[in-house]
Amino acid sequence: MLALFFLLTTVITLYIKILLLYIWMQWTGCDFYNPFLQRAIKITYPMIRPFQRVLSVFRPIDIATLAIAYILSVLLVPIILRLLRFEPVFFYFGLVLLIKSVGSLIFWIVISRAIISWVHREANSLDYVLFQLTEPMMIRIRRFIPLIGGIDCSPMLIILILYMLYFIGLEYVPGWTFF
Fold first, then answer.
1. 21-30, pLDDT tens digit by residue?
2. How far is residue 65's CA from residue 72's CA, in Å, rounded to a whole number?
3. Burial class (CB in 10 A: 0-12, 13-18, 19+), 64
4. pTM (two decimals)
5. N or C: lower Cβ tally within 10 Å for the chain?
6. pLDDT at 121 over 60
7. How confident is the model at residue 177 (pLDDT cuts 50, 70, 90)?
8. Would you kindly state where each structural domain of the chain is located, as residue ranges?
9. 3-state secondary structure of 159
10. Which residues contact 32 (CB under 8 A, 6 or more apart)?
């Protein structure tokens, strides 16, 4: 039974992150013909399509995709807590889970860009997507903190801010430390 819980939470969490990545790629205006955006569209489109007919797309955020991510987050809460009943407080915990998923996604995208910039010197489609996703955040930080000895400190500051927000958020949700 534990393996089933693990598999179910992993699949739903990954799908939520793919939905959030799709929203983020639309919001930042990533190249539509990029293979990563095409793959995200193929994975998310079957579930998003019926909702997009009901919920129109408001620019710059796709409300239908965000609603699906929130619904999946709310449905994931009883699975994580291993409860067989559904309570109204799960809507709040679902919102917390969705916000934590956004923070986790930003963290891993920033880390991925930093590691790829150290290791891989040739430009490719992955590097281009990571650049398009993270550059709007990093350029704001670089206005205040310039390069120090040729080293860009903006990824470290973004990660520091994410950790700070994570621990501040833990104060408002007692006992909620599964990520």
1. 888 888 888 8
2. 11
3. buried
4. 0.80
5. N
6. yes
7. low
8. 2-170
9. helix
10. none
